[in-house]
Amino acid sequence: MVTENDKMLLKKINADINCYVIPNGVNISYFMPIEADEKIFPSIAYVSDMSGRHAIENIRNFYAHIFPLIKSAIPDIKLYLIGRNPAMEILKLSSDNSVVVTGYVDDIRLYLSRMTVFIAPMIIGTGIKNKVLEAMAMAKPIVTTSIGVQGIDVITGRDLIVANTINEFADSVIMLLNDEEQRKSLGLNARKLIEEKYSWNAITNELYSLFNDIINKLPK
């Protein structure tokens, strides 16, 4: 499994099952900091398959409750919803001039490199969030919830910001939009953590170690 929470859920089904946790990883040679020619400031970005129930619920909650607070403090903010197959409910948000619904994009890195802050406002969801790992690898400053960092060994305020209430989330985004140094600090720390623990090399080393342990315990 990719998170301890997923392991716990599986164990509830079968307490005797042999289950190990190895998180997902990132190709850090592909997802890396990119200095965009033209940045969009101030901007926030959320990435997902935009047809899924979880994405729709997360965006609905963010747009209804958190985005208005951000917009009142920073009126020229742009919210980018990036991902394939946007549901009609999401497409309708583009009638708001502050919202851009991109649909499918060929290279997510080109969009993320231009964004000011990456958000992952998950209120529902399971597993490890690859898009959070990818944004961290690109040294983006991130605001997310506890659900958004399941399975990722982060320290809030050092690697990214975890905010679980409406006001905390809005205040954290506003703070980062107004603080370039904090954005840089979070981004650098996020990239360092990915290099140390969540690169493909680090993950495959864990996997090989697990295989060796299992093989060594087999009857001779």
TrEMBL record:
It comes from the Bacteria. This is Glycosyl transferase family 1 domain-containing protein. It comes from Desulfotomaculum copahuensis. Signal peptide: none annotated. Transmembrane segments: none annotated.
